[in-house]
């Protein structure tokens, strides 16, 4: 198991969370807690940089959806960047590629 | 030291004299002193128990003066009340009958009120005519032995108690576990049908693999009639596991059933489900969702054909094994996870099953099973397509049997629940199905 | 059920002679009568038995429920009388058995024609206006001592210590004597014997009765003998010049003579 780490960076357009490790049943609640504490203002864009994500199961996807819900509730946008191929395949399979704004890398957001 | 008659002592007698002298020195105590100071109590009584003689050791143990005892007390008077009763009912009669007694446990009473646990032996001395004259009694201090026995008893009682408690705890745990397993089984049965109904003109088969017998499965399926000789079926996978997943499954199943009766259009049923789940969960900040493929089949068409219309929300595409040996996916593009966004897009597809054609619905436990030496690779859709091609044509039972064997072959690479549902139009009698139809149409593994 | 086997019944003496039923008390078994039975059997048909739980009885027939009351023991007596179809028998009971005989005579009056009560006591515990010889604390101490296995054959501990209750014969070898009883059964018998107050039952005794007491008896003092004698109008009191609670062992000739004399008088 790869431990989940979340680091935050604030930019002019909004917060960027860099998520590394496994986003699984045991660790997904960590991201959800972190999001609950995260202030996002209207008009900002919450960026989740997933370049270091090693694994993501349905609990992880639930956490990503919770992030989206959190952003939308604040009238903010959400972008997933540097989505690994495995996760990309799953997101496409379940249709979430239509729901999330996806970008190749996080640099575009900053 | 031992001399035998007539055999001369081979060594010198000087040593012998020396040894004898040494023993004499050692044995200088008198018989009287031995009696009085022996490491055990001695006493002699008349036949009625009156004490005639008692040694200093026993007097000392009991804290008594000789004058207060000899000729004044009976042996039984030296005992505790319990000891006295026991003496009268057991000790004395037995001594009378047998003439001797050995190792009887009694308790004596000390002058200071304390008790002295003792072991008593007694023998009746008879006169020349055989008449009983007096009773000789030896008393051993059994305090240590009593303490030891008590300790043994206590340990044994402790051990028995501990074992009884452990047994009880284990029984309780087993009962709890059995109760929980029963509850889970009942709940699980409420999430999937006990058996599939018979559908005229169709053959059906199902398989459910539960990853953990202790966990409620997150996969679900159903098959039931709706208006107009049509049948609705669905198969899906809810996020998460355990009781929360089960409650989501329950809501999903009954919503779909109700929706199908209201409007048997596959996409409408999933849209209704999407609205219900979004309102219930994601809209409240607690995103929960499922993937689902929903179908309506209308059997009994021309030449036995059946029309199948499918709708999917984020679910892997259905697979069709054709009578001619081809296998193909039925893509339902654009469909989204159910319950995530309001008005989620639903993908649809339609096909016609001819005799010998079989459509298979599955959850991603199958395609996401890990394979390879390091369990690093996923089985995947391509391998599934190749597998289906290998087995086509196949009846629903045949393909479910083959897939069940495939799942078993994954071993610990299969760590998720997996549901499989197959529907097909039976092949005409001239083209018998190569796979054995002896498997039950409904099977569960875990 | 085979009563003869259950109660280890033994019959000696002339078959057509009047019957004496000899009943042992707490602690031992019919061997208690060994020194008096032969002389009695010269003129009487002597029936010996063990209460269930004692001596050679069938221990499997024992139950705590039945034998926690003197009526259970009286049931054994009536069973034996009925099994042998005895009528007008003379019941000779030692110690607690004297009171068992009183209860048996109530239950089956036609079968018991006279009572011989050897060192009887209707109540062992002192009461207002009554001296039984023991305080409640004394009896509690006895029962507690029995409870804790403090008394008796230390080898009674053997099966416990060896942790081998499944093989009681290991302990049996060591305690093979007639007073040795199962500790659990002995505890129940002791409790029943020493905690029962049967004084009221004495009033119902209407048959000729001999009360035999000893000059010196630590368990049934003279006052108790006098009490029993006073409570039973048709009784004769004989005080033996003997010590202890078991005159049939310590003074067998005098005991036999007193019984025979009494039997002669009630013929």
UniProtKB/TrEMBL annotation, chain A:
Gene3D superfamilies per the UniProt record, alphabetical: STAS domain
Pfam families: STAS_2
Superkingdom in the source lineage: Bacteria
InterPro entries recorded: Anti-sigma_ant, MlaB-like_STAS, STAS_dom, STAS_dom_sf
Annotated ranges, domain STAS: 16-110
SUPFAM superfamilies: SpoIIaa-like (SSF52091)
UniProt record similarity statement: Belongs to the anti-sigma-factor antagonist family.
Entries under NCBIfam families matching the protein: ant_ant_sig (TIGR00377)
Protein name: Anti-sigma factor antagonist
TrEMBL record, chain B:
Domain PAC residues, every copy: 102-154
Sequence segments annotated as region (Disordered): 424-446
UniProt feature coiled coil, ranges: 145-190
Keywords of the record: Coiled coil, Hydrolase
UniProt domain PAS: residue ranges: 27-79
Domain of life per record: Bacteria
Classification via Pfam families: PAS_9, SpoIIE
Gene3D superfamilies in alphabetical order: PAS domain, PPM-type phosphatase domain
SUPFAM superfamilies: PP2C-like, PYP-like sensor domain (PAS domain)
InterPro entries: Bact_Sigma-Reg (IPR052016), PAS (IPR000014), PAS-assoc_C (IPR000700), PAS-like_dom_sf (IPR035965), PPM-type-like_dom_sf (IPR036457), PPM-type_phosphatase-like_dom (IPR001932)
PANTHER family according to UniProt: STAGE II SPORULATION PROTEIN E, STAGE II SPORULATION PROTEIN E-RELATED
UniProt xrefs under NCBIfam families: sensory_box
Name of the molecule in the record: SpoIIE family protein phosphatase
From TrEMBL, chain C:
Family in the record: Belongs to the AB hydrolase superfamily.
Highest taxon above the source species: Bacteria
Gene Ontology MF annotations: hydrolase activity
The species this protein was found in: Streptomyces indiaensis
Keywords: Hydrolase
Domain AB hydrolase-1: 20-257
Alphabetical list of InterPro entries matching this protein: AB_hydrolase_1 (IPR000073), AB_hydrolase_fold (IPR029058)
Name of this chain's protein: Alpha/beta hydrolase
One matching Pfam family: Abhydrolase_6
Gene3D superfamilies: alpha/beta hydrolase
